[in-house]
Design a protein that fits this description.
Largest sheet: 7 strands, mixed
Radius of gyration: 15 Å
Order of helices and strands: EHHEEHEHEHEE
Number of strands: 7
Oligomer: single chain
Number of helices: 5
Shape: globular
Helix content: 25-40%
Length: 156
């Protein structure tokens, strides 16, 4: 199976952000049962959102980067670290490279902001995906929104 051409870009306007939120709703709220009031938070207003979108405008995936004071709580106060989060790929696009492209775009955004590393909270079923991209796990497993997670980090 091949995927029609798509691009990955920073979500610059409200329409792009709505596409990001639509993918998150499909993946996290509908598929995984995360309550909407946990899925969408105050960080959405300040995050750098990235979007994978097909040539015909259909959104395929999204993720976000928090940095600076907004990321401090998530990364133990270290302002040289960015926080990758809310990475979601639509079911039709899984296994076709969209997730990798999104992670690399978030890392590029982190580099552009002078960050030394990217930290994330990976769902445990996705640990192998992130390990293949150079992330290393740390700390114990924990629950977030009722789903098992583990901290991971990659130096840039």
């Amino acid at each position: 199976m091949s995927l029609p051409p798509y691009t990955v870009r920073v979500a610059e306007d409200p329409a792009d952000r709505e596409l990001c939120f639509a993918v998150r709703k499909e993946v996290f709220v509908a598929e995984q049962g995360v309550p909407e009031d946990l899925e969408y938070d105050e960080y959405d207003a300040v995050a750098v959102h990235v979007l994978a979108v097909r040539a015909d405008g259909v959104p395929l995936g999204t993720g976000r980067l928090l940095y600076g004071p907004q990321a401090a709580e998530k990364v133990g106060g270290d302002l040289t670290l960015g926080s990758l989060g809310r990475l979601a790929v639509a079911q039709e696009a899984r296994g076709l490279g969209v997730g990798v492209a999104l992670v690399r775009a978030i890392e590029d955004a982190a580099r552009a902001r002078g960050l030394a590393a990217v930290d994330l909270h990976a769902q445990t079923h996705a640990l192998g995906f992130y390990e293949r991209l150079g992330y290393e796990g740390y700390g114990p497993e924990y629950l977030e929104a009722g789903i098992a997670h583990r901290g991971m980090r990659r130096a840039l």
